Amino acid sequence: EVQLVESGGGLVQPGGSLRLSCAASGFIFSDHYMDWVRQAPGKGLEWVGRTRNKVNSYTTEYAASVKGRFTIARDDSKNSLYLQMNSLKTEDTAVYYCVREGIVATLDFWGQGTLVTVSS
Amino acid sequence: AIQMTQSPSSLSASVGDRVTITCRASQGIRNHLGWYQQKPGRAPKLLIYTASSLQSGVPSRFSGSGSGTDFTLTISSLQPEDFATYYCLQDFTYPLTFGGGTKVEIK
User: Measured between alpha carbons, how far is residue A61 from residues A34, A68, A92, B3, B67 in Å?
Assistant: First the structure.
């Protein structure tokens, strides 16, 4: 059974940093691209970014709203995905989802999400 | 960035109704479109990928069509468990972008 379990969310002050983690199981993690998607309270979905797999040199893509502040990394030996968030803004408040990019289908499996609140 | 415009933003329907939701891309995306269902407090769930392919385990009452800029999600006979918010997503180019969502409510 595919499982994605996010952790690391919480309350942080504007300008602060936070690191989210996602533990994957039930599939060959190293084969897949992995994404982060977020959802502000009561709002729609926003793609945050992607890390490709080893075959594609672990290259990354980011949304303009987070580029230069957020960094996506992965550790295939630990089946884990990370999101380092720096210089956080109040508008970064959201539930952050760890999402698998399918071999055939895009964004085919989602974790349950972790809430990040940026507030003073 | 490609803008995805969903319509309607909300609709009221009854069990058994045929429901159609549309998504329009600001430029052509071939068939690089997915549809997702999200229930309150839950993660989104993939229903349709590459515009018309049914994800494994998804009931056959869900179908997708379209190519280029105009896409449709159809629920042939709405069931009680289908009341949710639906989103389209283009993965033709970066950044990936979602539609604004369509909330399907009980009439």
Answer: 11, 11, 18, 18, 25
Q: What is the pLDDT of residues B12-71, one digit of tens each?
A: 999 999 999 999 999 999 999 999 999 999 999 999 999 999 999 999 999 999 999 999
AA identity, residue A60? T
pLDDT by residue (tens digit) across A74-109?
999 999 999 999 999 999 999 999 999 998 888 999
Closest chain A C-alpha to B100 CA, distance in angstroms: 6
B35 touches chain A (CB under 8 A): no
Q: Could you say which of B36, B38, B94 has the minimum Cβ distance to residue A61?
A: B94
| Partner-chain contact A106 B34, CB within 8 Å | yes
Cβ separation of B55 and A64 shorter than 8 Å?
A: no
| C-alpha dihedral, A116 to A112 to A20 to A60, nearest 10° | -110
